[in-house]
Amino acid sequence: MKIYLDSIGCRLNQSEIELFARQFRAAGHSLVSQAKDADLVVVNTCTVTAAAASDSRQKIRQAARAGAQQVIATGCWATLDPQGAAALPNVSQVIPNQAKDRLVTELLQVSPNIFELEPLLREPLPGAHSRTRAFIKVQDGCDSHCTFCITTIARGPGRSRRVTDVLSDINSALAGGAREIVLTGVHLGSWGKDLSQPLDLKFLLKTILAETDIPRLRLSSLEPWQIDEEFLALWKDPRLCPHLHLPLQSGCAATLRRMGRKIKPQEYARLLCNARKLIPRIAITTDIIVGFPGEEQAEFDESMSFVISMDFAGGHVFTYSARAGTAAARLPNQIPHSIRKVCNAKMRGIFSESSINYRRSFLGQSLSVLWEKATRVGPKTWQLQGLSDNYLRISAIASENPWNTINEVKLTSLTEDGLFGEL
Q1: Region at 324 (left for phi over 0; alpha for psi -120 to 50; beta for the rest)
Q2: Which domain holds residue 29?
Q3: CB count, 10 Å around CB of 197?
Q4: Dihedral of the CA atoms 275, 319, 12, 367 (nearest 10)?
């Protein structure tokens, strides 16, 4: 059977379809790069915003229009709206998140043991999903109660994967050629707390670094209140990428309280100061929500001023999207969409400027770059694109194809979204 896998949303969704890919291949099936060539399409959906839910529905419709006769909808949107998912064209099954780990085994009616007898090497997904980095799921669900978050409802309580299972996935990815491992989870910093013998993320990182030959280890989003100096000290190992994504959501204390966030702006500022002191060159990126209920002009101005003062390397700006079932959707003083749109543009402008400033600070320096894309543009000329360890997008020209290798690059000029350099 030929299978096409697609995903919307977070890195956790990406890690899950990579696992599906390994399992389908272990069972003797092949992956294709386009829905039109597939006997079966699996779409891992997202519902973090209304736009993400709309994109999820669109992906399913596109697969049906391409000719896929059998589409399986899974993921967060499909979990929260199974009837809506089932009503879309050619959807044969809706698999909720709670059953996602059994999706392949139940679909194929095979024993999970076939995936354990002879583990298959990780291979990049075909087509647009081909990657040099492997996303490894170490945790799912969340026990926090941020008032805006629908993901907690869709994913359920926090659940940690065993260390042995994480190591097995990492070693499989490394053996399959991955040069960078990205650890993912809904609430990554809570890893280990629910195990029969509670552990913490520091233990997991130390174990991975000690027991694997990993060239690069990167962390996805971490809640800032779970980071201390002992955790930051782990970055003495150069294999840990000097990049932390620490969602702030607002720079206004009053807004943060209504969001149910467990941190105050001044605590966040101290954390960033410590991180920059302990980890040279570190890129700190964040998420900000604008237009949250009750965020009138004074609160938005306070949030903007704080974001400016933090001088982030970059960030994502989300226009608040009321999600049915969340506490924030029931709050008074919902901000008009026209005002939310204006606030989004202003905040994106701040991040654009701070991103340029961060990138400019590396001109004339050298960074290690993992090449993720190499395009032939001449008989002996390749256009390269890749990521530095501190998450800068780097481009260069080379006389040969160095795809999936790590090289030192001297940075010479700014580009629209990164830097240009010389090998």
Answers
A1: beta
A2: 1-123
A3: 5
A4: -40
Concatenated DSSP letters of 227-268: --HHHHGGGGSTTB-SEEE---B-S-HHHHHHHT-S--HHHH
Q: Classify 152 as helix, strand or coil.
A: helix
Max CA distance (Å), the chain: 63
pLDDT digits 0-9 by tens, 65-90: 999 999 999 999 999 999 999 999 99
pTM (global) more than 0.85:
yes
30 and 116 share one domain:
yes
- Which token pair is 416? 């629209």
3-state secondary structure at position 119: coil
Is 268 in the same domain as 309? Answer: yes
List the 216-219 sheet strands across, edge first: 133-137, 180-184, 216-219
Q: Is residue 240 situated within a structural domain? A: no
Count H helices and E strands in the chain, helices first: 14, 18
pLDDT digits 0-9 by tens, 147-190: 999 988 899 999 999 999 999 999 988 988 899 999 999 999 99
Name the strand (E) or helix (H) holding 271: helix 265-278
